[in-house]
Amino acid sequence: MHANSLPAIRRLRHAGFLPACAALLLGAVQGAHAAKPAPPLNPPAVVEDVVSSTTSVWDRVAVLADGRLLVELPAWAGNTGPGLAVLDSGGNPQPYPDSTWNDPATPAQKRLVAPADIQLLPDGTLWVLDSGQPDPAQPPVPNGPKIVKIDTHTGQVVQTWAIDPATLRPGSRPATMRVARGHAFIGDSGIPAMIVVRLDNNRQRRLMEHTPSLTAGQPITVDGRVMTTPTGHTAIVNISQMEISPDGQWLYFEPLCGPVYKLDTDLLVDPAVTPIELEEGPTLWYKTPALGGITLAPDGTLYFNDVSTSSIFRLMPDRVYQKIVTDSRLHWPGGSFATRDGQLYIPAAQLDRTAPFNGGHNAVQWPVHIYRINVGSLPPPKF
Questions:
Q1: Which domains does the chain have, with CATH numbers?
Q2: Which residues fall within 8 angstroms of residue 56, CB to CB, at 6 or more apart?
Q3: Fewest CB atoms less than 10 Å from the CB: which of 32, 77, 132, 177?
């Protein structure tokens, strides 16, 4: 079966003529061609230091249209002050979109309690997932979990959607999100599941709970050391990273330990799709190590930020897989951002050295940096 038959498969499924096992067939069609590994880039990509901080741990970054860096500062990593900020000319975080939205005195439904993921679209719309949990070991703040839409051209909050408590479980943690096709797709890293929010009517569904593709299957190892919780147990983080194709058709995701899966969002937006189809729908896209970020560049290249070896890999549109750099400065490369002019911005977040992942002891080595790689100028792989 050729990939061009996929639209027909989708039409049959939506018409009710496709059996539940078709989701598995759909995945097999998409995963039929394995990625071709290329030798590491030689010489490796040049890593440029952009900005640093002696007070803040940044785990995700985006670049606004005016060139300013937007950063996420998780409270659980030991940060104080705003959870979402723009960096001023001195590299200091200024609350974003404003101080009121980052003020603990503001009612929870009108402030960013604990930003967990950000998505900046080409039109300047910023989507923020607020987990509502400054401390992952504690229940969410009442009215805290939500989706926030911000117009970065005006710096104004446009709309919010409260996450229905009925879609969460004791121990849930909304950790990652992508928005497309009029829906928000949210990964629950605490109790693995996918929460799908239809934005026009705020209809919310909890799907794929404990599906293997969302569930961590191995420890997270950084420089040969297994990450541990404050109680000394092995740290387990289920689905924690997402990326989505520009047309919203394909969702890429992974539990923190890897690997990366790919899922047709048709399966998520259609309420008629069965649980069996959803469980069989994800395709193993690449057997990656633990990743701190998945980034899709405008040219269709996926960048994987390997926390186990401080490396960046690229998976090109033609399915060629290649390491572009290993650099000890990229310690825990977090949620990065690819600009249209070919610049990849990467926060070296050091999350494995924060107390929640280091047996309760904070061992962050200051300063913390954001780096940049000119991926647009990299040569093609050589075999």
A1: 57-296 (2.120.10.30)
A2: 71, 73, 79, 81, 93, 368
A3: 32
